[in-house]
Amino acid sequence: MKKNYIELKQRRDFGAIITVYFDFFKQNIKGFTNIFLRYNGLFILLLLGSSYLMVSGIMDSIAIEKSGGNDQSAMMMIGFGFIGFFLVLITTAALNYSLASSYMVNYNKQEHTDVKKKDVWNLIVNNIGSIILFIILVIVIYFVFGIAYLILSFIPLLGFFAQNIIQFFISSWIGISFMVMLNEKKGAVESLGEGWVLVKSAFWKCVGVNFIIGFLLGLLFLLLLTAPGILIGIYTFHAVETGDALETSAVATVIYTIGLTLVLIVMAYSQSLSQFINGVLYFSVHEEKYNVMMKKRIDQIGQGE
């Protein structure tokens, strides 16, 4: 075990979990980012293509509407772009959820900071069937909770707090369940059941930690998008002031396409970083409930005597 290795299987209180998250973040950000870029290259190109279809379709639709023509072809372009965009987005989300979780499982298993790309990828491939089923179940879960979320939106104040609690509960439940699936090699349904048990045993800790890290990552997300956002804003303002027709401008289409793609890439990266906190929570809450490492150390002491 290397001296820089952070032991994840430990009981930790609220503050210690957040501290360990940032320690893990600083230690592994370079290695994980390399893995993220390596395996997201194809999906970045697909996002770029689907974003182009959507943006150019919207631009064409606006131009045709102004001229009073038939915008059926533009609507088809938007439709194909949206379908491709949605499918690539779901696949990218699943991939990056898997990359972050697999990275943490291998980090814990190998007990060193040099996590290999091949090991991360092999773990995902070996569990691809469970991952696909898990994603399908997550879509159903979000649909069900989305209805509850909508109902709560009609309740003043109390509904707002309930919505946020539900949001961060689901985030921790799904994230911890995914860790269960990869680390304990359980099926998708069984993992969701075990994840529910673990989150319920430390409900407020899981909700609170996800809230704080989610808020901080949200600020990071906005910070990363500040520069491209300002540049796109300046270009749009200049185009409007000079009377340029944005809907017929090839430059505008390219700029907005790249802008939308950058937003999605940063969102995917932020999602991966948010899964790290659920990984830290999983190992901590699991140890609190089952005392695996404590029993192991007691056995080692007994054998030493």
TrEMBL record:
Gene source species: Aquimarina brevivitae
Keyword Ion transport applies: no
Protein name, UniProt field: Glycerophosphoryl diester phosphodiesterase family protein
Keywords tagged on the record: Membrane, Transmembrane, Transmembrane helix
Keyword Transmembrane attached: yes
Membrane-spanning parts: 36-55, 75-99, 120-151, 157-182, 203-236, 248-269
Signal peptide start-end: none
